[in-house]
Design brief:
Length: 226
């Protein structure tokens, strides 16, 4: 009768040992899992913090360069700087021009939407779109256009690209692109340091358009769409 009792006791002890062993194995595994996950989280946090710091530093460098460029422009063109001082640098609200609108409303109604002949017209001509200008940029462009107009007032405009280039260089636009045209020499340039673009014809009177850079870059549109 004692042997069965001893056998039962031995079995209980063995089961307890096994359970204890399993418990410590699971606990150890959990610790290992937790220990393995913590470095990953820490590394991800450090990486995000580093990327954020780099982006902030790049933004600060850009802002410093922009302010320096604006200061250089204002020293070179003090009259323009005085005219546009205090103008807002906030961009106007975007206008959705993807759907043409009939400008002539029906009787008793408002303007109505019309279907374009080519629904992909805007997409195919995206290369002709220019970046919007804020009030400060528009003012600066208009002021530079006024400088050119005043320079040509009462005098014969240049009749060849060489003369036009010399005139624009003397006015402070040495990087202007000039080409002959049927009604006068055509020109395009970006206001030094800060923009915007000025495009026009040196005629009597001159015709000058102020605009932002084309979405594909520069003051001259790329050739052709897609």
């Amino acid at each position: 009768m004692k042997r069965p009792a001893l056998a039962v006791a031995a079995a209980v002890l063995a089961a307890g040992t096994l359970l204890t062993g399993c418990g410590s194995t699971h606990a150890s595994g959990g610790a290992d899992s937790a220990g393995a996950s913590k470095p990953g989280v820490s590394n991800a946090s450090a990486s995000n913090a580093s990327a954020s710091a780099a982006a902030k530093e790049a933004q600060q460098r850009y802002e410093q360069q922009r302010q320096q460029a604006l200061a250089d422009h204002d020293r070179a063109f003090p009259a323009v700087a005085k005219t546009c001082a205090g103008k807002s640098t906030a961009l106007p609200s975007p206008v959705d021009s993807s759907t043409p609108v009939d400008p002539t409303p029906p009787l008793g109604g408002d303007s109505h939407v019309v279907q374009p002949e080519n629904p992909k017209y805007n997409e195919n001509h995206a290369y002709l779109q220019t970046a919007p200008l804020n009030p400060a940029q528009q003012c600066r462009g208009d002021a530079h256009a006024a400088r050119i107009t005043a320079e040509l007032a009462g005098r014969t405009p240049p009749n060849d690209p060489e003369q036009a280039k010399a005139l624009l260089t003397r006015l402070g636009y040495p990087d202007a692109t000039v080409t002959p045209g049927t009604s006068g020499v055509q020109f395009t340039f970006s206001v030094p340091q800060v923009g915007p673009c000025l495009t026009g014809t040196l005629s009597t009177p001159p015709h000058i358009e102020v605009h932002g850079p084309y979405l594909e870059g520069g003051c001259i549109p790329s050739k052709g769409g897609h």
